Amino acid sequence: MADPVVILGGSSFGAGELARLLTAHDGVEHPCLVSRSHAGSSVASVHPHLEGAYPDDRFVSRIDWSGLRGSSRIIVFSAMRAGELAGLLGEFEAAWAEAGVDNRILLIDLSADFRLDEGRGFVYGLSEWMREPLAGATRIANPGCFATALALGLVPLARELQPRDVSAIALTGSTGAGVTPGPRTHHPLRAHNCVPYLPFEHRHIGEVNRLLAREGSPLDWSFIPYAAPWVRGISLTIEARFDEALDPEQVAALFRTSYAESQFVRWTETLPELTWVVGSNRCLIGGRCRERRVALFVVLDNLVKGMAGQAIQNLNLASGWPEDRGLRQWIGPYPV
Ligand SMILES: NC(=O)c1ccc[n+]([C@@H]2O[C@H](COP(=O)([O-])OP(=O)(O)OC[C@H]3O[C@@H](n4cnc5c(N)ncnc54)[C@H](OP(=O)(O)O)[C@@H]3O)[C@@H](O)[C@H]2O)c1
Questions:
Q1: Which domains does the chain have, with CATH numbers?
Q2: Contact yes or no for 261/124 (Cβ under 8 A)
Q3: Residue nearest to atom 9 of ligand 1 (CA)
Q4: Centroid of ligand 1 to alpha carbon of 124 (angstroms)
């Protein structure tokens, strides 16, 4: 029997992307989108690409959790803004307990609220490096979009090659800033611009450091993000310096081996470009070596592998389902 799905923060880009991807997932029912700002409106009025995908669907303001008592499991994705679920989780848990469904909830949070959580039992959902802890998890903190790109590039380097010094620069599209227009997302201010922000301070650094520490490979590294003019996608460059010259084939072999079991992460001989991953759950990594320096190039779609696609990958891992269930259309359109 398919599991019911609830998506909180229904008007977000994350919710629209989850609902799009879940049309291809045969383990779940059609999602119910909860929205405080758009309750009563049709889902397609906010997510026009979903027109006809879920006939007659409207955003709801709340869920009757007791009506879901007949389901052995209820999947809840939260795509609310940062800080909101942390403030509301106690209320949700009380409502789940009152409805008698508290032990059936699988909660996957897309926000940053529980990524560094020590006490509430959330598993950090960087799928490729957390498969074992994710199996059977009932609370999952989905990683940040930059953090996903950074971790997929940095963890193999740090674990196996111990670089002396690492710097990373990433450019992201405007969807990374969410649905509410602001100075960095409003089209006239962004369309022909490229803006560095939060140099050395972005909060995703903490997530990556925690994962590196978990892998026993703490690293001295820096990160500078840029707000770039396109809509979707992250293009990340990592430059690492070593004590001795590296053989390029050694680096390529490291990445091929690290992700040999990973359908969605792939080493490419040709340097990867953003449009090769937009719309898909893929992350492509390529690189070049010169003497003691290595440059890695990592691309992914912030709304898919950086958010909704990885959340579905984590649902699959938590459920013991094939990791690519619902994600089998894993190659995106080209050109975009
Ligand atoms: N965008 C990305 O690339 C990305 C990547 C990874 C993780 N994330 C995280 O995933 C979550 C969803 O991200 P998102 O970018 O799709 O959505 P978002 O723009 O952050 O919006 C999320 C939800 O917050 C509410 N909201 C939006 N603007 C509001 C406002 N001005 N006042 C009050 N409420 C407002 C809406 O909920 P209602 O529908 O209930 O009104 C909306 O659906 C966020 O926590 C984000 O940090 C985002």
A1: 5-142+305-319 (3.40.50.720), 145-301 (3.30.360.10)
A2: no
A3: 111
A4: 19
